[in-house]
Amino acid sequence: MKGNISFLAGSLFGLGLLMSDMINPARVLAFLDVGSGAWDPTLAFVMGGAMVPMFVAWALRRALSKPLFSDGFPGVPHGVLTPGLIGGAALFGVGWGLVGLCPGPAFAGLLLGGWSVWLFVAAMLGGMLIHRLAPIESGAKRSV
Amino acid sequence: MIFDYPAWTAGLVGGGLIGLAAALYLLGLGRIAGISGIAGALMDVRRPEISIELSFLAGLTLVPMIAVSAGFQTDILITENPVLLISAGLLVGIGTRLGNGCTSGHGVCGMTRFSKRSVVSVGVFMAVAAVVASLIRPMLGA
């Protein structure tokens, strides 16, 4: 059951990335490249559209003692700003700005975008493995 | 700015689906739909319930391809410069794990619970990505 719910969530997520065209790095770069004269604000609409159900979900979460198909809600990190949080975000920003792919669209486009996406995903998983093998203390106990 | 109302509308609706997916993952399974966190779980294969992360990634990867096979039109334009792709992939992999999240985890899931860490993270990676995409990428000819 949990696997089916998870597959359904992943499927909806992928469909959303496809429909919004966030699967296309050129569309993402057209948002990030603010100096081109052809700025494309679509990404802001996608983020806004995605945040609405999550505002509702966090409100509903307070009314539930436990998730519908699982045992407990996640712990969330304390509001501490660590060098790892900020440095990690900066490194991620460099990679995102260079190619226009972040993790979600990279997976969603894997079977559609040709070898470039495969190469990016392989390097991304390599980077995650490097972090796993040589973890730098990020100061947070839970991933959000 | 390009006034592309069909793209904006598709963005809002597609974004809504992304938010619904994250809401289902939170309320159904008690989990945060952060893709870097879900992918990062693959680095720890002995993790309990790794099948949940694998199921999510299977849906995320297979269903867009199925939709396109069924006739949905899409066009993925991406650089073919291997040095750029490898560098960017490494930076995204290390950066999202070090910073505990990406566009989905901090952006969609974290900001909506008004997490200070998520708001700061999104501000940093958005600003850095905008500078890199606007100023550095053109210099690299990408």
Overall tally of structural domains of chain A: 2
State the end-to-end distance of chain B: 21 Å
Class by helix and strand content of chain A? mainly alpha
Helix count, DSSP H or I runs of 4 or more residues of chain A: 6
Determine the mean pLDDT of chain B.
Answer: 95
What value does the Rg of chain A take, in angstroms?
17 Å
| Multimer state | heterodimer
Major beta sheet summary of chain B: none
Rg of chain B to the nearest angstrom? 17 Å
Short description:
The complex is a heterodimer of chains A (144) and B (142). Chain A is mainly α. In chain A, 63% of the residues lie in helices and 0% in strands.
Topology diagram in text:
The complex is a heterodimer of chains A (144) and B (142).
Chain A: H1 2-20, H2 25-32, H3 42-63, H4 83-99, H5 103-108, H6 115-133
Chain B: H1 5-29, H2 35-40, H3 50-69, H4 82-98, H5 103-110, H6 116-140
Helix pairs in contact in B: 5-6
